[in-house]
Amino acid sequence: MTRRTVTTIVACLALAAASLLGASGAYADWDAEGDGDTVIIEGSQPGSTGSNPGGGTVVSVPQEWTETYRVPACSPNSVSQDAEGNTITYADVLCTAWSACPGDGENRWFVYTRVHPVEGRPTNWAFQGSECRAASQGSEGGPVQITEADVLEAVRETAPRPVVNAEPTPVTYVNVPTNFSTTAAGETRTVTVLGVALQVQFEPTTATWSFGDGSSATGAGIAGAAVGAPGAVEHQYRRAGTRQVSVTQAYTVTVVVPGAPTITLGTPLTTTSDPFALEVGEIQSLVTRVR
């Protein structure tokens, strides 16, 4: 059991006792250090629940975050820290002057904040004034927690879109092999996810074709390929008309996190090209002379 867990349990017990004694009664040692301090800590350490729990695997991003610390609003309560950044609190154990607030179950608290940088010790605690709130109100702050689902949502509109190439074009013919190809190369783009700028690498994998007549194929194809060439994507239409051709490109997505190992997302990303209107005509023979 962590110290923070113990603090939460003791705080809940103290709040229950306080409701029986009244808002102006004596309050227990909520942080379980035996020093009489009545405190509420807000914020979460990296890797714990942050302001956006999201969904899927968490992408750990080193980032600056703000911690909030509250003590009952009565003199001489205050918050400071030692040379190593450890928090030191000064609190009136009785705190009989703890002022009530208009809201039911609310009391006034002194509010202190400090910033945790990406590296090094946090800044000194800074007094931010006082506020009314319920002692049991949930934690706030902490580093933003980014998940794979958050990244995929943000990069979906940023991923490179494939383009359809057809030969011959803009008209092909019934029963004539039509050559299709698309060009997809690896790219790196900057994507902002929940306010955090990340470098995202897109590496193309499988291309899937829809030829507009119910047929499909896979492969990137080869521009200018001869009929039947290995790796070429070919299709023969059986009827004349206009066909809407599209290609869907799958990408492996890798997130480049500053100061941390790169992360390859477990879920591939797919993007689809704009529809390509291909006219399919017929070649007819005209007999003009019979011998």
UniProtKB/TrEMBL annotation:
Q: Which residues form the PKD domain?
A: 203-248
Q: Which InterPro entries match?
A: Ig-like_fold, PKD_dom, PKD_dom_sf
What are the boundaries of the signal sequence? 1-28
What's one GO BP annotation on this UniProt entry? carbohydrate metabolic process
Q: Gene3D superfamilies from the xrefs?
A: Immunoglobulins (2.60.40.10)
Q: Identify the keywords attached in UniProt to this record, alphabetized.
A: Signal
> Is Lipoprotein set as a keyword in this record?
no
Q: Which domain of life is it from?
A: Bacteria
Q: What is this protein called?
A: PKD domain-containing protein
